[in-house]
Amino acid sequence: MHKRIALNIVRISGTNGNSIILGFIMATGGISMWLSNTATTMMLFPIATSVILVMKENHTQGNQQNFSIALMLVIAYASNLGGIATIIGTPPNVAYVGFIKDKLHHSIDFFDWMKLCMPLSIALLLMLYIVTTRFLYPNKMEKSEATANYIKEEINKLGKMSVTEWRVLLIFLLTAFLWITQAIWNKLFQLKLDDAIIALIGALLLFSVPSGMKNEDEENAAYLPILEWKDTKRMAWGILILFGGGLALAKGLEEAGLIQLLGNVLAQIAPDNLFLLILLITTLSVFISEVMSNVAQVIIFAPVVTALAVSLNINPLLLGIPMCLGASCAGMLPMGTPPNAIAFSSGQIALKDMLKTGFAMNVISILFITLACYFLLPLMMDLK
Q: Quick one: angle between helices 64-83 and 110-130, nearest 10?
């Protein structure tokens, strides 16, 4: 179903060089808001590779190299930038929201996060399109009938939406709807729904609703659930272990008093101006994540910036959210995020291309995150 969505977005956007890049940004960014950024990149990577080959075979005009570089870079960067739009879009968001709930007993509403971060994500995706197609890698490639035919063939191969796809789509829409409107149901019916409970409801439905898909090899295939327990082997268990290890490390540092000590030291050298402080923290977060796992980074630095905020007598979210968002924006090095590594492995991108484009997007991300968190965050989350 997710491949069907991506292909149709690319088909609608058009088949000249810039339109294809825009289509991939829209598809990658939109899907990454709800799926793992790594899974999104891996799904779109082979489609992008095929489109590059088709364009090379059918275009004698325009800059094919710039088109190839831009397309590979945008599927990596759009996966990262799209993920910041929702709490579940990227692991650092989940880690930070979990930390805030555990340590400060404060729940960040799913819809409140989207009010701030969805527009920010869309703005950054738009800037990604402008930077790659207008400034760094203009391709001047005209509309391609062959590319349009390739996309159409790929859609046709999928056939009509199966019963299973429809059921997965309905469960996904129900889960997303509950995430966004949970505050309403909690108020109306005195419930205690939160993001985790809603996620479990969605998961349980997938493990209990029959697939409805007939299989000649299995007599009862239509009655088997959409997901079976064996499917959990494909989950990213390593990330869950990293979460647990990071939380244990942060807890140990906190009990030893080192977190509070570091927060007090930083408070003494931190700038008095809140705008400059947010700018500094966002900048450090973006560039540290180039060489460090962004999940581990958030787990380790969340208590530090919280202690710093407490020492300065300001709301911890004013420093924690920009730190969290900055951790997902690394673009200069292949090791910065898994999507960067996947795109770099294509062989279409030289390291200098990733450094140049990544640095430009890092600077833009820092400015946009700082402005959003300074001006809009206090209003949208009612912070004092």
A: 170
**Cβ 144 vs Cβ 54: under 8 Å:** yes
More confident residue, 220 or 144: 144
Domain limits of the chain? Answer: 2-162+213-380
Q: Helix, strand, or coil here: 210?
A: strand
| % of the chain beyond a pLDDT of 90 | 47
Count the neighbouring beta carbons within 10 Å of the beta carbon of residue 199: 15
Query: Which residue pairs from 206-209 have beta carbons closer than 8 angstroms and sit at least 24 positions apart in sequence?
Result: 206/168, 206/171, 209/167, 209/171
Backbone torsion region of residue 382, taken as left when φ is above 0, otherwise alpha when ψ lies between -120 and 50, otherwise beta: left
| CA quadruple 378, 262, 243, 45: dihedral sign | positive
Amino acid at 314: I
Helix (H, G, I), strand (E, B) or coil at 225: strand
Alpha-helix runs per DSSP H in the chain:
2-13, 17-32, 37-58, 64-83, 91-103, 110-130, 145-158, 163-189, 195-208, 237-255, 258-269, 274-288, 294-311, 317-326, 338-344, 351-371, 377-380
CB neighbours (10 Å) of residue 364?
Answer: 19
| pLDDT score recorded for residue 359 | 97
* Burial class of residue 32 (count of CB atoms within 10 Å of its CB; 0-12, 13-18, 19+): buried
